[in-house]
């Protein structure tokens, strides 16, 4: 027994671990409120702490042996050391007075954990054990940095095994240098911290899938830990059936059973009730820290603090202040001023004014100061005069100005905090250029944009693993957005952090020469019928889409159904236009000739016909019935009849032609589409001027046209659009539509722009799949072939039929709205069909007359 243990356990390290653990028995009086914690199994916590220290010691011992044997492990440990060094340097650069000054941050975190679930309980234990190991308030931050560095070392080890040039794995350092990580990774119990574990879990899953070899105990513990710490980790539960399936179909069936049993145990732990007495740990941490904070605010330190200010800044005005600042914060401010912040953020005068406002805030309202962690916010932002004014007004009693009333129960706490942070940091494009760039890089914009680019890239190259994983990421984020109120904030970093990590890893693999085979662009039409090579399902989907345009225009459709239709029916036509767009191969002259022939000239012809056609009801019933549109209005075309779509499409095709002529690379096309979409968002929010021919809508139309162009080269309608796929697309569309406001492109109402795009794409693909199943329907194909005609004339016919029904008193009862709608739409379709056939015959007759005239001239 002794020999067996001796082979597996290092006795010397065991003794050292126990000695180190026992030291905390003499230092815990500095940190913990023993009166509170003794009543709640303090000895049990100490015993668990000793066991943890012993286990960590043995793991370090095994790591030392591995370092001696393996070059890969040595480089991974070296990388982890670099990560630890970087974070520690920035910790002391950012918070030089943290040894005392950080008490307020610790207080806030401990109080937050009282409100949390299982992950709050675990983090309370983490706080206790970390403070036992490093008995200073900053000990929690240092322990967190050690964990982050260890996770990054493991990630480095995995990634370096996937690439040829091992040194390129050092590019992972770029991930640590993101503004979100440099700031939030230094603060204990922040969501960015959990993003490291999400990224590691995904990489471990890929590693297991590739190598079929993994320590399942470690694997189960890792995933179990993630499921317990935060709610968004539940998305990783999807990996359980995949891993089990992989193991069962390999030679590791026993391991598969072990994995499933371990997963069930972890799921059981998640579903267990939270301990009712979990708050005692937070109280044990908070009480002594509150005492330490109060001592820092005592009047005994007043003269010393003011003297420190005078020595550092030599500002006479601060001598007359009655404020009592925290001494360590003054020392920290001096450090910032002399060492780091001097040339970047503010002038000497602004800095002094900021410090005075800061001290006043601490003195006059210390509780408010603690509640909003003003010391950390003020130590890391760009200061300007408006910020100082807002802080001073806060001190003078304007507590409701920044959403503080939310803490009294009138709003969700996260919304109030978000409003406060946005005001305090000048998020609405206040501050320096450096700060703006930092906010952009540290927010959700960059990773979401890159995931979208990967999705388009994967679709274009027909790489299922790329576009499917992108959809999974978007779906996970969407679920979190619906379930977690804090996810609506730009400061919800855990998911974004993991996406950043995976994108950096993807870039490393790509730069290492990892090639993705391109599929040759196939411009042949996939599904053809016998009449002129038209795409059958394309006519069918246009027909369905046109019906979805006509029914809401009656004004009698159910509001919820109309909201669902509006979520995608116009983007559908832009996507279909992109699907059939091949004019980028033409010369500039031929392109504009075909554009004039197919869109511009028909637009003016239909506009003229519409102007003539609208005279009829006004001649019959008077000018007050319908508004008469002039030719001038059609030339300018600002929100004028459903033909607005034609002008927007014409300009969009010109833009797409230019983009495709420059470069046909999927990355270039994706970046252009995304850039135009973002410009459209900014224009719609900041400018919102309706341009002639609705040119401002082109920013939103072009991305859909480009999406359709990419879709043409990858969409195999028979294989992709199965029933299961259609159900998933329908579910995504409905969820996005329900979560968003009503969309109306021509009125520039988009709601949440991300939800708008997701709903539009998923709804369009769903309708394409449905149309493929009814592509033989002659009525739908007829409407689709003549969709231009139906688009131009359905409004006037609907109005005429409504007036006729009102004159004849038909279907005027409130209970007969559905009948009225169906009758009017059916009659409208019949009338337009008659008009269409009549115009075709007239056109054919005129053409025949011209042929006869030409023959007579020749004779």
TrEMBL record:
Keyword entries, A-Z: Membrane, Transmembrane, Transmembrane helix
Ranges annotated as spanning the membrane: 9-27, 47-67, 79-101, 121-148, 169-186, 192-209, 216-244, 433-460, 466-484, 491-509, 564-582, 603-621, 641-660, 667-685, 691-711, 751-768, 788-812, 818-835
Any single Pfam family the record assigns to this protein: Acyl_transf_3
Any GO MF annotation of the entry: acyltransferase activity, transferring groups other than amino-acyl groups
InterPro entries: Acyl_transf_3_dom (IPR002656), Nod_factor_acetyltransferase (IPR052734)
Domain Acyltransferase: 536-835
UniProt entry tagged with the keyword Transmembrane helix: yes
Superkingdom to which the source organism belongs: Bacteria
Name of the protein described by the UniProt record: Acyltransferase 3 domain-containing protein
Organism: Roseburia intestinalis
Higher taxonomy: Bacteria, Bacillati, Bacillota, Clostridia, Lachnospirales
């Amino acid at each position: 027994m002794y020999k067996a243990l001796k082979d597996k356990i290092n006795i010397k390290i065991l003794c050292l671990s126990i000695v180190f653990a026992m030291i905390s028995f003499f230092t815990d009086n500095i940190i913990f409120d023993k009166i509170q914690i003794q009543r709640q199994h303090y000895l049990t916590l100490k015993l668990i702490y000793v066991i943890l220290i012993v286990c960590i010691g043995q793991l370090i011992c095994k790591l030392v042996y591995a370092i001696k044997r393996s070059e890969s492990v040595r480089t991974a440990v070296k990388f982890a050391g670099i990560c630890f060094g970087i974070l520690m340097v920035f910790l002391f650069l950012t918070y030089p007075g943290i040894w005392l000054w950080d008490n307020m941050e610790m207080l806030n975190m401990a109080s937050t954990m009282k409100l949390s679930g299982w992950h709050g309980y675990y983090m309370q234990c983490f706080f206790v054990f970390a403070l036992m190991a490093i008995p200073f308030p900053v000990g929690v931050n240092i322990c967190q940095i050690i964990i982050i560095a260890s996770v990054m070392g493991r990630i480095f080890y995995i990634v370096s095994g996937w690439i040829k040039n091992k040194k390129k794995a050092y590019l992972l350092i770029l991930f640590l240098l993101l503004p979100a990580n440099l700031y939030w990774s230094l603060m204990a119990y922040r969501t960015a911290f959990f993003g490291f574990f999400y990224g590691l879990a995904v990489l471990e899953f890929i590693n297991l899938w590739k190598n079929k070899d993994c320590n399942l105990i470690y694997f189960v513990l890792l995933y179990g830990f993630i499921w317990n710490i935060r709610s968004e980790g539940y998305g990783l539960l999807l990996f359980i059936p995949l891993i089990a399936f992989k193991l069962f179909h390999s030679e590791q069936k026993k391991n598969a059973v072990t994995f499933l049993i371990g997963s069930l145990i972890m799921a059981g732990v998640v579903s267990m009730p939270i301990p009712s007495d979990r708050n005692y740990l937070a109280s044990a941490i908070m009480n002594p820290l509150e005492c330490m904070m109060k001592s820092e605010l005592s009047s005994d330190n007043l003269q010393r603090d003011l003297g420190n200010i005078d020595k550092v800044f030599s500002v006479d005005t601060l001598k007359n202040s009655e404020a009592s600042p925290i001494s360590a914060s003054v020392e920290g401010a001096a450090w910032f001023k002399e060492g780091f912040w001097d040339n970047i953020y503010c002038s000497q005068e602004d800095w002094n004014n900021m410090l005075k406002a800061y001290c006043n805030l601490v003195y006059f309202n210390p509780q408010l100061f603690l509640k909003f962690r003003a010391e950390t916010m003020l130590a890391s932002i760009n200061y300007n005069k408006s910020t100082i004014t807002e802080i001073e007004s806060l001190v003078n009693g304007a507590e409701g100005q920044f959403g503080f009333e939310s803490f009294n129960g009138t709003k969700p706490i996260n919304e109030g905090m978000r409003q406060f942070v946005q005001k305090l940091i000048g998020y609405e494009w206040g501050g320096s250029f450096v700060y703006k760039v930092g906010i952009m890089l540290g927010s959700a914009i960059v990773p979401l944009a890159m995931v979208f680019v990967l999705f388009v890239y994967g679709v274009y190259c027909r790489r299922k693993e790329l576009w499917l994983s992108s959809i999974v990421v978007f779906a996970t984020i969407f679920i979190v957005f619906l379930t977690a109120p804090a996810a609506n904030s730009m400061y919800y970093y855990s998911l974004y952090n993991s996406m950043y990590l995976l994108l950096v890893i993807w870039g490393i693999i790509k730069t290492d020469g990892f090639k993705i085979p391109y599929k040759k662009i196939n411009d042949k039409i996939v599904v053809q019928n016998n009449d002129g090579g038209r795409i059958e399902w394309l006519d069918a989907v246009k027909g369905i889409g046109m019906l979805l345009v006509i029914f809401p225009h009656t004004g009698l459709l159910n509001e919820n159904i109309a909201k669902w239709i509006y979520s995608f029916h116009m983007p559908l036509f832009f996507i279909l236009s992109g699907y059939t767009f091949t004019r980028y191969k033409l010369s500039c002259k031929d392109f504009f000739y075909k554009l004039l022939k197919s869109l511009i000239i028909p637009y003016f012809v239909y506009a003229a016909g519409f102007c003539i056609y609208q005279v009829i009801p006004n001649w019959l019933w008077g000018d007050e019935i319908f508004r008469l549109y002039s030719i001038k209005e059609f030339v300018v075309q600002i929100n004028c009849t459903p033909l607005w779509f034609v002008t927007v499409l014409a300009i969009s095709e010109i833009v797409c032609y230019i983009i495709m002529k420059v470069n046909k690379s999927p990355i270039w096309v994706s970046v252009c589409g995304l850039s135009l979409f973002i410009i459209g968002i900014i224009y719609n929010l900041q400018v919102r001027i309706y341009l002639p021919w609705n040119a401002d809508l082109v920013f939103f139309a072009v991305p859909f046209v480009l999406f359709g162009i990419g879709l043409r080269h990858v969409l195999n309608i028979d294989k992709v659009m199965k029933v299961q796929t259609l159900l998933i697309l329908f579910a995504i569309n409905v969820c996005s539509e329900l979560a968003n406001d009503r969309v109306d492109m021509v009125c520039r109402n988009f709601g949440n722009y991300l939800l708008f795009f997701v709903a539009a794409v998923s709804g369009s693909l769903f309708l394409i799949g449905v149309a493929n199943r009814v592509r033989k329907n002659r009525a739908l194909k007829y409407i689709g072939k003549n969709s231009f005609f139906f688009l131009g004339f359905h409004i006037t016919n609907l109005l005429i039929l409504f007036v006729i029904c009102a004159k004849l008193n038909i279907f005027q009862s409130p209970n007969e709205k559905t009948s009225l709608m169906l009758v009017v739409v059916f009659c409208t379709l019949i009338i337009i069909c008659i008009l269409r056939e009549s115009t075709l015959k007239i056109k054919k007759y005129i053409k025949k007359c011209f042929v006869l005239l030409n023959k007579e001239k020749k004779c």
